[in-house]
Amino acid sequence: MKQEDKINMDAPVCDGGCEYLKLHPTLGEKAKNSLPSAEELMRLAELFRMFGDGTRIKILSALLHSEMCVCDLSEIVGMSVSAVSHQLRLLKAAKLVKCRKEGKSAIYSLDDDHVRLMIKSGTEHILEK
User: Fold this and answer.
1) Lowest-pLDDT range, 15-19, 57-61, 102-106?
2) Which of 10, 25, 71, 97 sits at a 20 to 30 Å CA gap from 114?
3) Which residues pair with 74 in a beta bridge?
4) Over the stretch 111-126, which tens digit does the pLDDT of each residue have?
5) Listing from the earlier edge strand, what are the strands of the sheet with 68-69?
6) Rounded distance between C-alpha atoms, residue 112 and residue 63, angstroms
7) Residue 40 CB: number of other CB atoms within 10 A?
């Protein structure tokens, strides 16, 4: 579907000379009332901040395929174990990855299918023509 086909033709268009002094009575109020709370906005911003680092994206992308230990991830992303461990701590705090113990090793995986969906949707979005 083309972008112009997605536009709601019934929606009022503001040309800068809007007759409403504050909000369009229906659309503006509906949008304003559906905004997340201040706390939810902060949490969402923090979540998306985690996706703002190429190393973290590499780690998450690698974990799309398989769970791995920090040593394997270190080899894949081409960084020290210490640097990858630091990134994994941030990703774990953001609930994007989880960890399980296998003997003395810590095995990392994506936290849930939401994370998988965010990475795949983001990738599809940037590859759209």
Assistant:
1) 15-19
2) 71
3) none
4) 999 999 999 999 999 9
5) 68-69, 105-110, 97-102
6) 11
7) 10
